[in-house]
Write a structure and sequence with these properties.
By secondary structure, the protein is α/β, with parallel strands linked by helices. It has a single domain (about 1-230), classed as Alpha-Beta Complex (Spore Coat Polysaccharide Biosynthesis Protein SpsA, Chain A), CATH 3.90.550.10. It contains eight helices and seven strands. The chain has helices at about 15-30, 45-55, 70-80, 100-115, 130-150, 165-170, 180-185, 210-230; strands at about 1-10, 35-40, 60-65, 85-90, 120-125, 160-165, 190-195. The chain has a seven-stranded mixed β-sheet with strand order 3-2-1-4-6-5-7, sandwiched between helices. Helix 5 runs parallel beside helix 8 (about 210-230). The radius of gyration is 18 Å and the shape is globular. It starts with a strand and ends in a 15-residue tail after the last helix.
Length: about 240
């Protein structure tokens, strides 16, 4: 099993493929036994051609294609299912996340695991490089979500996260679940540690999310996650010994 799998869901990110792959290589090469999985979620631009060309330059790259667009959570799950690494690092494919932050998040998660704790290391974009309306709507959404879910996470929308592969696959899956990973990990008995990370301006392409559509879907999903959390029970269990008294 490899140390690390970097999972990058993409939709119509032509122009961003090679620059981000080069950054991932610089951040991880020689430090970890790693792979990079790009999940092309039904792109209709030149993303597929760029990924095909990149395979000859990047030995660690694997490409999986969705034949129709299924959303970021579906792409993330496809990537984690196919991953060969014990640890998963997720990145947005637009280049706004900085791959050089991955080692710090991995260290946080791995140190916790060595102490017997389950931890999701979540990026915190304290200095966001987005439009004013995006920053304001995100602050409002984070405040409401934190109040209702008590997930103690200032920035669940950051695409940069590190977690154990097995822990993710044990979580309940639903569309848009990537927005609620901290609460879902807590529901499974884990902890969330937020780590301040770099955030950059988008250099190429455009965002795939609007403010209104995220708000409407987010309210419905939030109610569903509240329901899941209220019905969670983490048992404390011990196995009977076969030794005779």
């Amino acid at each position: 099993m490899q140390d690390l799998s970097v999972v990058v869901p993409v939709l119509n990110e032509a122009g961003n493929i090679e620059p981000l792959l080069a950054e991932i290589d610089r951040a991880l090469q020689g430090k970890y036994d790693f792979e990079v999985l790009y999940i092309d979620d039904g792109s209709r631009d030149g993303t597929a051609d760029e990924l095909l060309a990149a395979r000859s330059k990047h030995a660690q790259l694997r490409v999986i294609t969705h034949h129709r667009t299924c959303g970021q959570s579906a792409a993330l799950r496809t990537g984690v299912n196919a991953a060969r690494g014990r640890w998963i690092a997720t990145l947005d494919g637009d280049g706004q996340n900085d791959p050089s932050d991955i080692p710090r998040l991995l260290e946080v998660a791995a140190d916790a695991a060595s102490a017997g704790r389950l931890v999701l290391a979540a990026g915190y974009r304290k200095m966001r490089r987005d439009s004013s309306i995006k920053r304001v709507s995100s602050r409002v959404a984070n405040a409401v979500r934190s109040r209702l879910l008590s997930d103690a996470t200032p920035d669940t929308g950051c695409g940069l996260k590190v977690f154990a592969r097995d822990a993710f696959l044990a979580l309940p899956y639903f569309d848009h679940m990537h927005r609620f990973l901290p609460a879902l990990m807590q529901r499974a008995g884990g902890e969330v540690v937020s780590v301040e990370v770099n955030h950059r301006h988008r250099q190429r392409g455009s965002s795939k999310y609007g403010t209104l559509d995220r708000l409407v879907v987010g309210v419905v999903d939030l109610l569903g996650v509240m329901w899941l959390k209220r019905r969670a029970c983490i048992p404390e269990a011990t196995e009977a010994s076969d030794a005779l008294e």
